[in-house]
């Protein structure tokens, strides 16, 4: 397709139905009730993966007391999530050749192994820290599947009028897991300033209590991952007996041809950058939100609630927008323009509010909370809409490969941001400006992007 519009030949299904099949479309496709069980299991795994990834950021002050972690250590613990995307080509190849079951089982196994590593109660603190870092890395290896396979699952199991909604649910549960950790961590693990350590003995008891609470959360996460791994091992089919749509039944490009097509498609690269830059920056920013809000005199508990509501709001708003896109097709670009305009305005508001000493803008707790939450709502809700538009743009490239490439780019942006944060962690106003600039950059790219709906054309016109 390149940078030009798609032709009639490109819109034809690669695997054409026989004349007998054309006259009886209801017999060629079918949706199954168990698709909701498949979606639930996949989404729960993404939820747990996001919870483990974002566990340390919301309790950075407690982790510093319990294990001696510095701000650079916290940034590295969050960085293991993007680093886990290094072998993303392997997971995409496995999904393309063996189906979603094989890729998801491997990801769940890495999560289980990582949860075991993190939970080993070693007495030697240096060795214990290495095991924690190793567990975070193994959990990060599950990211390429849990964060990018949602559109593949929705196309494989869901009808065209439910695809965007299923994509939103499957894709956003990873973010919802990060939101849950914003609340679970500060609620279960006490902050250092919650205790009065007047003596050395009292301080030691306080540190021991914090470590016990952290250990309790890690044991609970280990149990949840183990149960879900067993459920996926016992039952998680790669695909339904019959496809739910013409697009799901059509033959796709090969793995190598898909990569070449994506890298040579200027329209894809354009929208891929529009997705990767803001979502990657926001992911890194949210992972250290407690550090960002500390100069504004926001407590660890309050920072956790801000992160929670911004992510939950983004998930709810994203599902609502996806449902709207399912009911009114062909409006993905307009939806993205509105979402990114809101993200640009709210991020600018938040950044200027944090610089109240220079801008003289009112800086109250309500304003900080509102602007910060709006940033998360707008950016997180754009993820499923971006995925659907990306897939429509490059069809017949398989959904898993398309979304695998863009999520890798997003995590590459997150990794670079957190890498710089390990060196420049004393003053974080530059991080807020990165959020604002990324939203404006994405908005400009989407405004100049020309949309096409090749997969939708196939389902609507060829299936009639």
In short:
The protein has 23 helices and no strands. It is an all-alpha fold and 464 residues long.
Topology:
Layout: H1 8-11, H2 19-22, H3 35-53, H4 60-67, H5 71-83, H6 88-98, H7 100-119, H8 125-140, H9 143-148, H10 150-157, H11 163-188, H12 200-234, H13 246-249, H14 255-264, H15 266-287, H16 289-293, H17 300-327, H18 332-354, H19 356-359, H20 365-394, H21 399-421, H22 429-447, H23 454-462
Descriptive labels:
464 residues; mainly alpha; disordered N terminus
Mean pLDDT over the full residue set: 81
Q: Helix tally?
A: 23
Structural class, please?
mainly alpha
Indicate the percent of residues in helices.
over 70%
Biggest beta sheet attributes: none
Distance between the termini: 25 Å
Transmembrane segments: 36-56, 76-95, 102-121, 141-159, 166-189, 216-236, 266-286, 306-325, 332-352, 364-391, 403-424, 430-449
GO molecular function: transmembrane transporter activity
Membrane topology: Multi-pass membrane protein
Family: Belongs to the major facilitator superfamily.
What does this structure look like?
Its main location: membrane. It catalyses: pyridoxine(out) + n H(+)(out) = pyridoxine(in) + n H(+)(in). Residues 1-27 are annotated as: Disordered. This is Solute carrier family 49 member 4. One of its GO terms (molecular function) is transmembrane transporter activity. The protein is an all-alpha fold and 464 residues long. The protein has 23 helices and no strands. The chain has helices at 8-11, 19-22, 35-53, 60-67, 71-83, 88-98, 100-119, 125-140, 143-148, 150-157, 163-188, 200-234, 246-249, 255-264, 266-287, 289-293, 300-327, 332-354, 356-359, 365-394, 399-421, 429-447, 454-462. Helix 6 (88-98) packs across helix 7. The radius of gyration is 23 Å and the shape is globular. Mean pLDDT is 81; it is low at 1-27 and 194-205.
């Amino acid at each position: 397709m390149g940078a030009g519009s798609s032709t009639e030949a490109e819109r034809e299904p690669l695997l054409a139905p026989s004349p007998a099949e054309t006259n009886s479309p209801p017999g060629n496709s079918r949706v199954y009730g168990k698709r909701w069980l498949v979606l639930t299991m996949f989404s729960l795994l993404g939820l747990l993966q996001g919870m483990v990834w974002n566990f340390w950021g919301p309790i950075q002050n407690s982790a510093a007391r319990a294990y001696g972690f510095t701000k650079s250590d916290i940034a590295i613990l969050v960085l293991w999530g993007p680093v886990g995307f290094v072998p993303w080509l392997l997971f995409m190849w496995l999904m393309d050749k063996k189906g979603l079951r094989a890729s998801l089982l491997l990801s769940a196994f890495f999560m289980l192994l990582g949860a075991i590593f993190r939970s080993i109660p070693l007495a030697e603190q240096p060795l214990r820290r290495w095991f924690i870092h190793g567990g975070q890395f193994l959990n990060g290896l599950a990211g390429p599947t849990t964060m990018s396979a949602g559109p593949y699952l929705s196309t494989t199991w869901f009808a065209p009028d439910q695809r965007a909604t299923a994509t939103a649910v499957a894709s956003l549960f990873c973010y919802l897991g990060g939101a849950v950790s914003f609340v679970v961590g500060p609620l279960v693990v006490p902050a250092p300033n919650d205790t009065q350590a007047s003596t050395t003995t009292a301080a030691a008891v306080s540190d021991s209590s914090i470590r016990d609470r952290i250990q309790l959360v890690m044991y609970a996460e280990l149990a949840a991952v183990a149960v879900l791994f067993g459920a996926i091992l016992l039952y998680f089919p790669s695909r339904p007996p019959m496809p739910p749509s013409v697009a799901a039944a059509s033959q796709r490009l090969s793995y190598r041809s898909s990569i070449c097509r994506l890298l040579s498609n200027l329209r894809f690269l354009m929208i891929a950058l529009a997705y990767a830059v803001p979502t990657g920056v926001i992911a890194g920013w949210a992972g250290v939100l407690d550090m960002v809000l500390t100069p504004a005199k926001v407590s660890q508990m309050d920072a956790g609630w801000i992160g929670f509501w911004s992510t939950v709001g983004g998930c709810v708003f994203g599902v609502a927008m996806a449902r709207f896109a399912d009911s009114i097709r062909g409006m993905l670009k307009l939806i993205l323009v509105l979402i990114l305009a809101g993200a640009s305005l709210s991020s600018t508001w938040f950044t200027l509010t944090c610089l109240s000493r220079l801008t003289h803008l009112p800086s109250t707790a309500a304003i900080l909370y509102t602007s910060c939450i709006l940033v998360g709502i707008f950016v997180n809700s754009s993820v499923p809409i971006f995925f659907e538009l990306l897939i429509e743009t490059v069809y017949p490239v398989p959904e898993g490969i398309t979304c695998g490439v863009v999520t890798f780019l997003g995590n590459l942006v997150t990794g670079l941001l957190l890498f710089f944060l390990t060196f420049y962690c004393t003053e974080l106003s530059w991080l807020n400006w990165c959020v604002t600039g990324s939203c404006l950059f994405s908005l400009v790219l989407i405004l100049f992007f020309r949309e096409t709906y090749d997969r939708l054309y196939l389902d609507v016109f060829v299936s009639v």
